[in-house]
Amino acid sequence: MASHCRGVKGELVFNVKGLEADTAFELFKKVSKKSEVAELQELTSLCGGLPKVIVEIASSFAKNTDRWKHTLSTKNKFMLELENNGEFDSLKGLFGWMNSYFRKCPDSLKPCILYLPIFPRNQLIRRRRLVRRWIAEGYSRDSHEESAEMTGEKQFCDLINLSIIQQASALGLGGTRMVFCQVNGFFREYIVSRQMEENLVFELRGSCALTTQRTGRHLVILESWVRDRIVYESIDFSRLRSLTVFGNWKSFFVSESMRLLRVLDLEGASELEYSDLKKIVKLMCRLKFLSLRGCHEICHLPSSIGGLRQLQTLDVRHTSIVTLPVNITKLEKLQYIRAGTTAPANEAPTPHHLVPQLSNCCGGHHLVGVVMPPGIGKLTALHTLGVVNVSASGTKAFLEDLKKLTHLHKLGVSGINKNNSNEFFRAISVLVHLESLSVRLEDNNQGCLNGIPLPLEGLRSLKMHGLGDQLPNWSGQLTMLAKMDLEIAKLMEDNVSPHSEGATPEGRRKPTRGVIKFLSELPGLCILRLRVDHLQDNQLDVSVITNDLEEDSFKKMKIFEIACSSSLEVSFGEKTMKKLEQLKVDCSSGSSLLGLKHLPELKEVLLKGSSDEELKADLIAVLENHPKQKKPVVKFEKLREPLRPDSLGGQGGH
């Protein structure tokens, strides 16, 4: 029946999603009639949101809790229990479908699926990290019609449509790409049970026994592993293609037999030393993917990195690196460079020995972007570049190089000021493929973009940080924009362009002007993050008024974040943001949110960096009377740690 309905039009297929995490957990508790057992959350996760699986396992758990506790404590036993125990015969149809699918799975997609258990269960995975790894492994390749990047994105979408990969939250993303994902818990366990047949991924966790059978192509070192050197050195690394480390790094992880390694992913690992990095660069000359993201101990890259001639991806985001070596210009296969940080200076300290040489160009403050050496224009394969401090890199030389990078899709820069802003925007006018742009202005240069035209019309994501009290009037060039991140010092009524001020007759509402009017005219805007130091009268009304009548506005908005250094009052009209699903607020105590009842699709209100219990209590009371059947929830979001997996301003995680 499904095949008949589908015909040749794939869009007629409706992909049935699993239950959301909280709904799945409530179902498990209801069926098992248990609510305070520690294993409930873990078992629910393993069920992957599949109602039938949840009901079967919850019923069994209610009868024999100790048996399931033992199953959870034994590696890879969960799926064996379901497949081999007659108690779960009702799931045979599901396993039959899964076995059939994996047998017939396209050769181009199967290795991408078998690769997923590299990431621990419930791990948040940046989409960009996963796709770039697939490219390095050769799973996503160039073809006559499309680049490896495009192929990888399509493969990612295929796994989303199969529900093997899930969005990290239930929020809609509109026209933007997913930043974070998770592997479906049930599918992950199934894949792991097949991994033993394929002998692909193997991991070190807890206390591992000494055995000669531990081998494969992809090694994962989990945070729980005891770092046993004897066990480690007994492993045959001759076939190893990737090494992924969670937790502490140890110098003995570098082995001379790892010469075929293509992927080294140390994102978030700690205790990595410069001497280890030098060994890595010397021995692993076939690396295509190198990520040191979040390795704060690393202050610079060795000049010998120029020997990694196969390198495609270099991610040194959120390290202490503030300048890239000259020899990086020898890496002509590089497609992706991520460096620098958007964190405040006190979160990512600049190494002391580098402060003097940078103080002239950044006023003694820590750089947001890195210093890029001359000659970067040789890297014509670059797809993603950022964050680069333009003024610290030598404006003229860098901008001449930038003009040669005509295949750039994503660009992030800092150090933009009144002396280089015109030249910068002229330089990027030749970047016809650019979809994502992130610009951070230097201090005391808030008005340097005024009057400068935007030479691009295909941007889908734009970040502008460090603005003063006026926005450049670019609305006509941003018709394709889906995501915007705006940081502005003052948000007043008229900070886009001058207008004639007339008196407002008594009893009539003032027409909407300024930033809100500007943003409301962006037809495709789905995600808006607005950070303001000072609001006029500490009030923000996001409705749009014309001739005393409210207009439909922000028609595609799914996620709205507002941050202010003081308390504020945010008001929503009857015709604004009708598709809004998440409202995120970061402000001082004493704030209020009015008109939430006018947001029919609202799913959650997130209070970020605030512990205002009074505001939370007020919101809960208001949302209890929300017209939506499933009431929106109120959550607190903790402040992020220094390693912040935020994106460059593009359509996904970088």
TrEMBL record:
Instruction: Identify one Pfam family in the record.
Output: LRR_14
Residues in domain Disease resistance R13L4/SHOC-2-like LRR? Answer: 240-495
Q: Which UniProt keywords apply?
A: Plant defense, Repeat
Q: Which residues form the Disease resistance protein winged helix domain?
A: 118-168
Spell out the InterPro entries in the cross-references. Answer: Apaf_helical (IPR042197), Disease_R_plants (IPR044974), LRR_dom_sf (IPR032675), LRR_R13L4/SHOC2-like (IPR055414), P-loop_NTPase (IPR027417), WHD_DRP (IPR058922)
From the record, give the transmembrane residue ranges: none
The biological process GO terms on file are: defense response to other organism
Name of this protein: NB-ARC domain-containing protein
Provenance organism: Aegilops tauschii subsp. strangulata (Goatgrass)
Origin organism lineage: Eukaryota, Viridiplantae, Streptophyta, Embryophyta, Tracheophyta
